[in-house]
Specification:
By secondary structure, this protein is mostly helical. Helix content is 77%, strand content 0%. It contains 7 helices and no strands. It has helices spanning 2-11, 18-38, 42-65, 71-95, 103-126, 136-155, 172-206. The longest helix is centred in the last third of the chain and has 35 residues, at 172-206. The chain is globular, with a radius of gyration of 18 Å. The chain starts with a helix and ends with a helix.
Length: 207
Amino acid sequence: MSKLNENIKDLFTNWNTIPNWLCFLRIALIPVFSVLFIKEQYIAAFILMIIAAVTDLIDGKIARKFNMISNLGKILDPIADKLSQIAIVIILIVKFWSFEGPLKYLFFLFIIKEGIMVIAGAALLAKGMRPVAAEMWGKVATTVFYIFMIAIIAIGPNGALVGVAFFKALPDGIIYAMVIISVILAFVSLFGYAPGFIRQIKENKNK
């Protein structure tokens, strides 16, 4: 029990930082933009998704630049990231459920990838280790995901901004290309985590 208390104390050491509060904000926005989407308040939901995406892209930079890196942040950031992405994917599945073709099934690949990441992260935490930090491909995949998926929600079929000012719906071919590119990058980033995960497991066994 004392070891557990030490781990918890270590986790919350210097936790009160701007990057961590941005993570809390991102998590809090998830049910808000999801409900707005369900209620067909598309523009408001779209704006909140952009805010969530921006916080995801800047919190790490702020932490590194201003020396605000914390143990809690190392865990909280990927959790907030995955919850946000899963929520966006579910919204897209609902949006394209009646869409002809395999597009809606491609979105399930994101859930499979995130499910694997969650299980792997939980396995590390259960052994007292911290999840592997995001590599370059993970950051690229996350950035592309947000840009492409938010664009699809905004100017895909029946998108939030279609018909507003000069915005027109994206052709189906472009939507498919964006989703496929995002899926490929998502799994490239998944494989990029594998060496670090295996290394941590081996090091833990050798202790």
